[in-house]
């Protein structure tokens, strides 16, 4: 692993970005495991896939983390809202078409 400052060429930079992308996918796969389990728990409890208070709590957390890491909170929120919608759609696969989104 090289830091950005240690990257001397575009090949170095691309290799590090590719490495990070692979790690991000691994982390999203882990997150998906929790989403799948949430769908099972929600199904047993009769809960909908979309719980608006939780959506906004997740967004607020991401905005706070973005600020802590010097990233633009609006941009991170936009990305995360996409992640949230993907997660809700994944839960709906378990909950079925009759479940409320």
TrEMBL record:
<feature type="binding site">
    <location>
        <position position="14"/>
    </location>
    <ligand>
        <name>substrate</name>
    </ligand>
</feature>
<dbReference type="GO" id="GO:0046417">
    <property type="term" value="P:chorismate metabolic process"/>
</dbReference>
<dbReference type="Pfam" id="PF01817">
    <property type="entry name" value="CM_2"/>
</dbReference>
<feature type="binding site">
    <location>
        <position position="31"/>
    </location>
    <ligand>
        <name>substrate</name>
    </ligand>
</feature>
<dbReference type="InterPro" id="IPR051331">
    <property type="entry name" value="Chorismate_mutase-related"/>
</dbReference>
<feature type="domain" description="Chorismate mutase">
    <location>
        <begin position="4"/>
        <end position="95"/>
    </location>
</feature>
<dbReference type="InterPro" id="IPR008241">
    <property type="entry name" value="Isochorismate_pyruvate-lyase"/>
</dbReference>
<dbReference type="GO" id="GO:0004106">
    <property type="term" value="F:chorismate mutase activity"/>
</dbReference>
<dbReference type="GO" id="GO:0016835">
    <property type="term" value="F:carbon-oxygen lyase activity"/>
</dbReference>
<dbReference type="InterPro" id="IPR036263">
    <property type="entry name" value="Chorismate_II_sf"/>
</dbReference>
<dbReference type="GO" id="GO:0009697">
    <property type="term" value="P:salicylic acid biosynthetic process"/>
</dbReference>
<feature type="binding site">
    <location>
        <position position="42"/>
    </location>
    <ligand>
        <name>substrate</name>
    </ligand>
</feature>
<keyword id="KW-0413">Isomerase</keyword>
<protein>
    <recommendedName>
        <fullName>chorismate mutase</fullName>
        <ecNumber>5.4.99.5</ecNumber>
    </recommendedName>
</protein>
<dbReference type="InterPro" id="IPR002701">
    <property type="entry name" value="CM_II_prokaryot"/>
</dbReference>
<dbReference type="InterPro" id="IPR036979">
    <property type="entry name" value="CM_dom_sf"/>
</dbReference>
<feature type="binding site">
    <location>
        <position position="91"/>
    </location>
    <ligand>
        <name>substrate</name>
    </ligand>
</feature>
